[in-house]
Amino acid sequence: MKIIDVVAERNYSVVVGANGPDEIKSISAEHRKVLLVAPTALIKLFKLKESKNLSIISTPAGENQKSIKVLESVWRKCAAVGIERSDAIIGFGGGATTDLSGFAAATWLRGIDWYAMPTSLAGMVDASIGGKTGLNSQSGKNLIGSFYSPKSVLIDTSYLTKLPARDLSAGMAEVIKCGFISDYKILNLVQDDVIDFDQLIYRAVKVKAKVVAKDFKESKLREILNYGHTLGHAIEKDSKFRLRHGEAVSIGMVFAAELSNELVGLSKEVVDLHRVLSSNFKLPISYPKSRWKSLSALLLKDKKVKQGKVRFIGISKIGKPVWLEDVPSNTLARVYERITK
């Protein structure tokens, strides 16, 4: 078991190597009432059961749960079971579930405790860390939300054995991202014949925890965690979420690397390494050329847009993020062609 302390608006710990069932029992014993939020499929897969102090509400899978309609159902359940300010919510599932659960906790009675229990690799290394909670809207991804840290993040890595291969690969995109922006040792570990997930998760969480401690509300520094995400979010929405978040981010990182090569001289060897590492985990590295018009419109709705100007995170070399601001549209279109199929 390894513990990383996160400094935020309230400090909390991330426990890598927790025992999920034991943690649920412990949280239930500490509170008068607890509401566990989890996708229907995971409730069945892990045989989650209600108890005297524990109620359960099921949600749809994936991004479909990050909606006002589903949030309202969580609020109604809170009211029905009598969740009070001293009670708590557990988000049990992937990143979409912890996003939803955290936002429900932030808004119910103006804020109650919540615990993140991520079951996906992406949730373990990214979504559950840092206090970002929220929903999607018709206008774009994650445009509704709040910064609201959990009481703790409890990572049971045994849950990864139940994760479909495609979702495990998608989570590797967020791990690889941490390697390119901060910790080059991650890039070595992901090339090992046998992947040490405990070590990778620990190192990736440390990267995010360090950044969050310096810039909780993303005034600037925290934006480096969005490496590959600007185009990635646009691709995710353009695909109508048929692509996993990590799959879209994989393409976005290749684009960001190519853009970095164009604008700040990132070496071709590092650009090529993006393609190699993603391909090793069967992650996509290209997107249809015909979708640029749609993507360019979606980019203007990204959270990092300022005064109508699209901003990207790039790297000048491994571990050295840079801000690429006010990039001409013809440059973006030209660089996009390098990642098209």
Describe the protein's topology.
Layout: E1 2-6, E2 12-16, H1 20-30, E3 34-39, H2 40-45, E4 54-59, H3 68-81, E5 88-93, H4 95-107, E6 113-118, H5 121-127, E7 132-137, E8 140-147, E9 152-155, H6 165-181, H7 184-189, H8 197-214, H9 229-238, H10 245-264, H11 268-280, H12 292-299, E10 311-317, E11 320-325, H13 329-336
Helix pairs in contact: 3-4, 4-5, 5-6, 5-8, 6-8, 6-10, 9-10, 9-12, 10-11, 10-13
Spatial strand arrangement across the major sheet: 1-2-9-6-5-3-4
SSE sequence, one letter per element: EEHEHEHEHEHEEEHHHHHHHEEH
Radius of gyration: 19 Å
**What's the CATH class of the largest domain, please?**
Alpha Beta
Characterization of the model:
The protein is an alpha/beta fold and 341 residues long. It has 2 domains: 2-162, Rossmann fold (3-Layer(aba) Sandwich); 172-190 and 215-339, Dehydroquinate synthase-like, alpha domain. Helix content is 44%, strand content 19%. It is built from 13 helices and 11 strands. The protein has helices spanning 20-30, 40-45, 68-81, 95-107, 121-127, 165-181, 184-189, 197-214, 229-238, 245-264, 268-280, 292-299, 329-336; strands at 2-6, 12-16, 34-39, 54-59, 88-93, 113-118, 132-137, 140-147, 152-155, 311-317, 320-325. It has a 7-stranded mixed beta sheet, with helices on both faces. A hairpin with a 2-residue loop joins strand 7 and strand 8. Helix 5 (121-127) packs parallel to helix 6. The longest helix has 20 residues, at 245-264. The radius of gyration is 19 Å and the shape is globular.
